[in-house]
Design a protein that fits this description.
Blueprint (H helix, E strand, L loop, with lengths): L1 E6 L19 H11 L4 E7 L20 E4 L2 E4 L25 E5 L22 H8 L3 E7 L1 H14 L3 E10 L7 H11 L3 E3 L6
Parallel strand pairs: 1-2, 1-6, 2-5, 6-7, 7-8
Antiparallel strand pairs: 3-4
The structure holds pyrazine-2-carboxylic acid and zinc ion (ZN).
The site of pyrazine-2-carboxylic acid has 9 residues, from helix 3.
């Protein structure tokens, strides 16, 4: 069993979105091609899905601005612009994505008090989203990850997949990063490789 995990292909991370990831829209046609021709048994999407009062938003802390670092419940938290608010346009999957091919959606970041970059757990590993148990139950052995953003949600989703024992591939050309600091994407790729994620080009599958 092999599964494709589409990480956060949502309006707010794409062109003109609240937390725009450079060149994010280039990922969408690659995702569609992989869905169509990649011979996956299952297609899963993660969805960043915050309540409006989420504490990862700079706007919810007096005098703070996006990019500031705070302590949130004992964890270092980067403050973000307001993004992917539940039921808003920004939280929807981008229109050009082949939505109908998505078998299951796992939402994350729903707890006001803690952020959740990984599709498997929140940033403190306090709660699971259910994705890990779901994949194990289905007998999935191989996980292929793509999406946004390479240096946050993609990275932590791939690292957790490895840790949970899945053979984990990163479709490198189908990811884009925030690069808040220069070199963040490169660093994220190095960390993933070091931890056992196998980097792949989508051309090897389609
Ligand atoms: C993400 C920052 C905040 C992501 C989500 O999808 O990578 N990054 N929320
Ligand atoms: Zn978020």
């Amino acid at each position: 069993m092999k599964v494709l995990i589409l990480v956060d292909l949502q309006n707010d991370f794409c062109a003109n979105g609240a937390l725009e990831v450079p060149d994010a829209n280039a990922v969408i046609p690659i995702a569609n091609d992989l869905i169509e021709k990649g011979t996956f048994d299952l297609v899963i999407a993660t969805q960043d899905w915050h309540p409006a009062n989420h504490k990862s938003f700079a706007a919810n802390h007096p005098w703070r601005k996006p990019g500031d670092l705070i302590d949130l419940g004992g964890l270092e938290q980067i403050l973000w612009p307001i993004h992917c608010v539940q039921d808003s346009f920004g939280a929807l999957f981008v229109n050009d994505l082949n939505h109908s091919a998505i078998d299951f959606v796992f939402q994350k970041g729903t707890d006001v008090e803690i952020d959740s970059y990984s599709g498997f757990f929140d940033n403190g590993k306090r709660k699971a989203t259910g994705l890990g148990a779901f994949l194990s139950e289905k007998g999935v052995k191989e996980v292929y990850v793509l999406g946004l953003a390479t240096d946050y949600c993609v990275k932590f989703t791939a690292l957790d997949a490895v840790e949970l024992g899945f053979k984990t591939f990163l479709l490198e050309d189908a990811c884009r990063g925030v690069n808040l600091n220069e070199g963040d994407v490169e660093k994220a790729l190095d960390t993933m490789k070091e931890q056992g994620v196998i980097l792949l080009n989508s051309k090897e599958l389609i």
